[in-house]
Amino acid sequence: MNAIRNSTQLGSVRRRPVSLQPGSMVEYASLPGVDNSPLIIEARAEGLRLSAWAAGRREELEELAARHGAVLLRGFAVEGVSDFAECVDKMCGGALEYRFRASPRSEVGHHIYTSTDYPADQFIFPHNEHSFSPVCPRYLVLWCETAARTGGETPIGDNREITRRINAAVKERFLRRGILYVRNYGVGFGLPWPTVFQTHDRAEVERYCDSVSIECQWRKNDQLRTRQVGPAMIRHPRTGEHIWFNHATFFHVTTLPTEFSKALLAEFEEADLPTQTYYGDGTSIEPEALEHLRGIYRASLCSFSWQANDVVLVDNILAVHGRNPYSGFRRVCLAMAQTFKPNEWAVLCGETP
């Protein structure tokens, strides 16, 4: 499942010709062979703290993220989790609590989490973070505290290119029908509902679901099923572009490694799978459409090797991300910032940009 393009070390990064003022503290670069994403901003002054440099640059950094999809900030000093949290505050307005969870994560600071606590030998398929949810983060900020001995890259894909490459008939079907997300909690695989909703109070779960139009059904043995419909594409709140933004592929059982998907389908009825996706009217998504989408996601990826104290600002609408397998200890921390509701920015079938 792993298809990575242009994996590079900083030494092979191509410097862009830019106009630098005398005494400028940073320079700009890009990955060789990658037209747009990500932009690299490298500190030229030794010991320059990112939290200090980013102060007053929020608008500039958000504009660069909108232009390039992601910005890699390299060579800056980040002095621990609390300093990283300050960086997030300066760059995009503070970290969000991880709500309506889908991935196992450990909280290492106030609203600062490990990226995903999946086994090191697994490849995480590219996705827009939380794009299944009625409330999503606009930005992700990742900080490499400790790079893996080998592997462990966070490949990034250009979602503009993904959107352009999707077959028009496939796109039209999703736009017309939307996407139904079905999740089952407490089935022995995936996260239990108290972890997902961060409460043991069923009434509180019901209130949250009702507030964001999620249908919830309590089942025997303290199990819960949720269903909600979301859009296939949204308008970017800043640029107005129509962008493919959903979890139709990521949450579908056939996107898992073959041995995992076969094991799940042998154990569960389809309606009882931990996660599964359908067209919004409840009909099955064609296998060929899913494979078409998976191929486009994989082909979009570019990769760089993490270095200690690298920070990446990701426009969560314009860039997808994944994770490569790795060896050795690795800790990459994640913060999410600024919420929006995809249904408020949904692209309708036949709508033009």
Number of strands: 22
How many domains make up the 3D coordinates?
2
Euclidean distance between termini CA atoms: 33 Å
Helix count? 9
Give the full name of the CATH homologous superfamily of the largest domain. Answer: Clavaminate synthase-like
What's the level 1 CATH class of the largest domain? Alpha Beta
CATH A-level architecture of the largest domain: 4-Layer Sandwich
Largest sheet data: 9 strands, mixed
**What percentage of residues falls in helices of 4 or more residues?**
10-25%
Uncertain residue ranges: 1-22
Radius of gyration: 20 Å
Kindly report the average pLDDT value. Answer: 91
Widest β-sheet, arrangement of strands:
2-3-4-5-19-9-22-7-6
| Beta-strand fraction estimate | 25-35%
SS-based structural class? Answer: alpha+beta
CATH topology-level fold name of the largest domain:
Double-stranded beta-helix
Which geometry do the CA atoms define?
globular
Describe this structure in words.
The chain has 353 residues and is an alpha+beta fold. It folds into two domains: 5-122 and 138-158 and 303-345, Double-stranded beta-helix (4-Layer Sandwich), CATH 3.60.130; 163-294, 4-Layer Sandwich (Double-stranded beta-helix). Helices cover 23% and strands 29% of the residues. The chain is built from nine helices and 22 strands. It has helices spanning 50-53, 58-68, 81-92, 159-165, 168-177, 193-197, 202-211, 258-267, 287-299; strands at 5-8, 14-15, 26-30, 39-43, 70-74, 107-109, 112-114, 124-127, 136-146, 150-151, 156-158, 179-185, 215-219, 223-230, 233-235, 242-244, 275-279, 301-304, 311-315, 319-323, 326-327, 331-340. It comes from Methylocystis bryophila. Its cofactor is Fe(2+). InterPro entries: AlphaKG_dependent_hydroxylases, TauD-like_sf, TauD/TfdA-like.
